[in-house]
Structure formats: C-alpha cells, structure tokens
Amino acid sequence: MSDESFQGLKALPFKFPRTCGNCGRVYQTEAEFLEQTQDLRNGRSPFKAFEDDDGRVILEVFRNCVCGSTLMDEFHSRRDNSPEGQRRREAYAQAQALLAGKKPE
After folding, report:
1. What are the Cα distances from residue 9, in Å, to 4, 82, 104, 105?
2. Number of domains in the chain
3. Which phi and psi (to 5°) does residue 31 adopt?
4. Are 85 and 79 spatial neighbours (Cβ–Cβ below 8 Å)?
5. Distance CA 75, CA 95 (A)
6. How far apart are CA 102 and CA 14, in angstroms?
7. Within a domain: 101
8. pLDDT tens, 85-99?
C-alpha cells in the first residue's frame, strides 16, 4: 500500500470480495481495495470511527473506485485502548497544547 495511513488495517471478517455497485469492479482483498481505489476528492479524510453495539471501535474507510463511485468498507480500529495507550494519547494532547501556547487540560 502506498499510503502509510492504511498500513496495518485489517478488514472485518467476510467483507471481501467487495464489488462496486456502479461499475461492477471486484476488489478481492482489503489490499486490492486500498491499493486500487483512489483518495476522496477535495482532500477529505477517508476515515470515520464509530462504536459497535459491544463498544468496539470500527473504522469506516471511504475510497473512490476507478469509476468515481465512493465505496466504504469497515476495518478493525488500530487504536490502543489499553491504559498505556490512553496515557500516551493524553501526553500527546498535552504536548500539542503546549506547542500551541494553550493551557493543558
């Protein structure tokens, strides 16, 4: 995959193959989906996170098929939800606030 932001993504079970409803192109694997599709127009983020009914974070990834149709598929979140992962996110947020000249929370 050429874009580092997609490294390590794992599709949810039974999501592939994926077929474009517009042109019928088939993406056999998550790697094909991520490599052979294109970024969204206007530089929009391809990621949207939500929690499922069990509280697990699911990452929706939006990409454009070569025909121009926008496709979405669901992947496991790579976020580290352990106490150590939370501590690292809090430290990062504080460092960002200090660099921006804001009072850390």
Report:
1. 10, 18, 32, 31
2. 1
3. -65, -45
4. yes
5. 29
6. 45
7. no
8. 778 778 888 888 888
pLDDT in tens, 5-47: 566 566 555 678 989 999 999 999 888 998 999 988 887 888 8
Rounded-to-10 torsion of CA 83, 48, 10, 65? -170
Tell me whether residue 104 is in a domain.
Answer: no
Cα separation of 76 and 72, whole Å?
A: 14
- Give the H/E segment covering residue 48: strand 47-51
Residues 105, 97: Cα–Cα separation, whole Å: 8
CA–CA distance, 86 with 38 (Å, rounded to integer): 32
Residue 91, in any domain of the structure = no
- Distance in angstroms (rounded) separating the CA atoms of residues 104 and 5: 27
* Nearest CA-CA partner of 20 in 75, 74, 72: 72
Q: From the CB of residue 16, how many other CB atoms can be counted at a distance below 10 Å?
A: 17
